[in-house]
């Protein structure tokens, strides 16, 4: 079964050659997390997001799943709507995430929940991701992970796996905890959601200077919305790799128009790792 799809092969090869010429010092990676670095399906079942893992794991008070589902039913139609403006969708997403955060706080969200999810291996990386992260670390190639999920879970997961490396920068939703490990607030000034995951937030971080110095970008995402993650940087060369995990028949053509490479059927990272190896094999 063919899982790697490339619509414009000559254009892709030109971009790879230009990245090789730029060398390691000009390369950076920008990646989504859920269903991009992680698997989309496990044993034939759709892999749950960090929020769904908390809901299904019954970690919080008994009323949490019902109330969280009610919020989903109220706001999900705005998330998938193709008729309302981006500004209106953005407003509704902020409302949703704000209410959901307040609900999780009231229902007992804590560090213990995060640790249990990670230690029980409930989040599984896509095959080849750990090798990918290791290669970037060894070559000191920065990777920015932009996630609308729970940053504390991602950070804990990378730490447990020994991948909490200095070249990894994470923009996501982080909690503040009290002395007992219970959630008391948010560290973010803004909720990161699927429609505002872009690097404009980078300008507020010490990592921004490092990123803008590198003009060649490898972007990894699983949705068309992830294409905006490089806003705030003006790359000279960008290669976009899209993971099309489902709805292949309906979406493949559109993905191939927007991404240089499309990996379907919840495929592994072999092609991506080979591309990185090819790019960095030139002497810097």
Provide keyphrases for this structure.
seven-stranded mixed β-sheet, Rossmann fold, 40% helix, 2 domains, globular, DNA polymerase, domain 1, 284 residues
Explain the overall architecture.
- It is built from ten helices and eleven strands.
- The protein folds into two domains: 4-42 and 124-280, HAD superfamily/HAD-like (Rossmann fold); 45-118, DNA polymerase, domain 1, CATH 1.10.150.340.
- Helix 7 (151-160) links the parallel strand 5 (143-150) and strand 6.
- It is α/β, with parallel strands linked by helices.
- Helix 1 (9-22) packs across helix 10.
- The chain has helices at residues 9-22, 50-56, 64-80, 86-106, 111-119, 129-138, 151-160, 208-212, 248-258, 270-280; strands at residues 4-5, 27-31, 41-42, 45-46, 143-150, 168-173, 175-177, 183-186, 216-221, 237-244, 261-264.
- The longest helix is centred in the middle third of the chain and has 21 residues, at 86-106.
> What amount of the residues lies in strands?
15-25%
Instruction: Say which CATH homologous superfamily of the largest domain is assigned.
Output: HAD superfamily/HAD-like
Rg of Cα set: 19 Å
Q: How many strand units?
A: 11
N-to-C order of helices and strands: EHEEEHHHHHEHEEEHEEHEH
Query: Distance between termini?
Result: 36 Å
Number of helices: 10
> Might you state the CATH topology name of the largest domain?
Rossmann fold
Percent of residues in helices comes to 40-55%
CATH hierarchy: architecture of the largest domain: 3-Layer(aba) Sandwich
Low-confidence stretches: none
What would you call the structural class? alpha/beta
Q: What would the principal axes of the Cα set say about the shape?
A: globular
Query: Given this structure, which CATH class of the largest domain is correct?
Result: Alpha Beta
The domain tally reads: 2
What is the subunit arrangement here? single chain
Average residue pLDDT = 88
Q: How are the strands ordered across the major sheet?
A: 1-11-10-9-2-5-6
């Amino acid at each position: 079964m063919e899982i790697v799809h490339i619509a414009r092969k000559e254009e892709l090869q030109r971009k790879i050659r230009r990245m090789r010429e730029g060398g390691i010092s000009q390369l950076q990676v920008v990646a989504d997390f859920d269903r991009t670095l992680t698997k989309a399906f496990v044993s034939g079942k759709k892999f749950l997001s960090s929020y769904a893992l908390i809901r299904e794991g019954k970690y919080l008070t008994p009323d949490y799943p019902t109330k969280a589902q009610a919020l989903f039913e109220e706001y999900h139609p705005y998330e998938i709507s193709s008729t309302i403006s981006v500004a209106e969708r953005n407003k509704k997403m902020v409302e949703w995430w704000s209410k959901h955060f307040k609900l999780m706080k009231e229902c007992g969200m804590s560090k213990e929940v995060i640790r249990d999810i990670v230690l029980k291996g409930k989040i599984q990386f896509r095959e080849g991701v750990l090798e990918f992260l290791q290669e970037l670390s060894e070559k000191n190639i920065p990777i920015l992970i932009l996630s609308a999920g729970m940053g504390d879970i991602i950070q804990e997961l990378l730490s447990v796996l020994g991948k909490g490396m200095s070249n990894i920068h994470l923009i996501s939703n982080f909690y503040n905890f009290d002395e007992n490990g219970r959630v008391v607030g948010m560290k973010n000034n803004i909720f990161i959601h699927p429609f505002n995951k872009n690097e404009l937030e980078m300008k507020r971080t010490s990592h921004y200077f490092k990123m803008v110095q590198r003009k060649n970008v490898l972007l990894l995402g699983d949705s068309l919305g992830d294409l905006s993650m490089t806003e705030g940087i003006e790359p000279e060369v960008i290669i976009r790799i899209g993971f099309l995990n489902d709805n292949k028949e309906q979406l493949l053509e559109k993905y191939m128009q927007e991404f240089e490479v499309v990996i379907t059927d919840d495929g592994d990272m072999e092609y991506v790792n080979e591309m990185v190896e090819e790019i960095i094999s030139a002497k810097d």
